[in-house]
Amino acid sequence: MRLQINIDHVATIRQARRTDEPDPVRAAVLAELGGADGITVHLREDRRHIQDRDLRLLGATVRTGVNLELAAAGDVVDIALEVRPMEATLVPERREEITTEGGLALRDADARGRVADAVRRLRDAAIRTSLFIDPDDDAVRAAATLGADAVELHTGEFAEAWKLRGTAAGRAAIARQLERLRRAASLGASLGLDVHAGHGLTYENVTPVAAIPEIEELNIGHSVISRAVLVGLERAVREMAEIVRRARRSTERE
Ligand code: PXP
């Protein structure tokens, strides 16, 4: 099982001020030191968090491997071919969404055509290709037909069900979503696909997903970056307080 850490939200904090900190490239080094098996980033069409500069530097510095999430449209496929990440995960992308809301719409002929074209271009460049899909039979079969190396099962609906775990209806929904993930994972593996999963996974809900034997890779971002903010805040404040107090002591001595 590989744990890949999505560092988009480090870039989100930087972009909130359009400044140069925190640098996702430095965050990637720390994630690797912490045991990440890979670094995941989404180069969005609107560049709301990760920038081209980040991707190029990550390509040159990440020791484990970069999983680049990208839409099958716009200039990002060209950039992927140039940067040559270890893995490219094709995701649907809508400008107005807060985060990737669902899997690729492989039933839609136009969308399927764009994905097929991107898979072909990436595979011709020997880049491992994964498709982010809802955990349903037809989507898994479509991914296999399109020649992807892997599928990433969208765990968002499972994560939403988890929030209702205090109720009987919520627990039934969790059981249904887990069964859906297990079934899709098993079908994917039987079709020769590597099976990944991600979206909305947290310290509380990851255990039953990580226990599904066919799943070989998890991509987790928001929950880990959120925790990093909290576990790091005390030390960060202590360091700033020390600088401020030292400055005051030195003026008082003069
Ligand atoms: N996998 C994919 C394909 C995603 O688009 C995202 C969100 O960027 C993730 C995993 C990580 O989701 P989260 O930030 O909720 O852990």
Describe this structure in words.
- It is a single chain.
- With 254 residues, the chain is α/β, with parallel strands linked by helices.
- It has 10 helices and 8 strands.
- It has a single domain, classed as TIM Barrel, CATH 3.20.20.
- Bound molecules: pyridoxine-5'-phosphate.
- Pyridoxine-5'-phosphate (PXP) binds next to strand 8 and helix 10.
Keywords:
8-stranded parallel β-barrel, alpha/beta, TIM Barrel, binds pyridoxine-5'-phosphate, 254 residues, globular
The total of helices stands at 10
CATH homologous superfamily, by name?
A: Aldolase class I
Q: Please tell me the CATH architecture by its name.
A: Alpha-Beta Barrel
**Outline type:** globular
Rg, alpha carbons: 20 Å
| Whole-number tally of structural domains | 1
Q: What name is given to the CATH topology? A: TIM Barrel
| Total number of strands | 8
Average of pLDDT: 96
Largest sheet: 8 strands, parallel, barrel
- Bound ligands, named by name, code or SMILES: pyridoxine-5'-phosphate
In the CATH scheme, the class would be Alpha Beta
SSE layout:
Blueprint: E1 2-6, H1 8-17, H2 24-33, E2 38-42, H3 52-61, E3 66-70, H4 76-83, E4 87-90, H5 109-124, E5 128-133, H6 137-145, E6 150-154, H7 156-162, H8 168-190, E7 194-198, H9 206-210, E8 215-220, H10 222-253
Parallel strand pairs: 1-2, 1-8, 2-3, 3-4, 4-5, 5-6, 6-7, 7-8
Helix pairs in contact: 2-3, 6-8, 7-8
Bound molecules: pyridoxine-5'-phosphate.
Question: What's the gist of this structure?
Answer:
The chain is α/β, with parallel strands linked by helices. Helices cover 51% and strands 16% of the residues. The radius of gyration is 20 Å and the shape is globular.
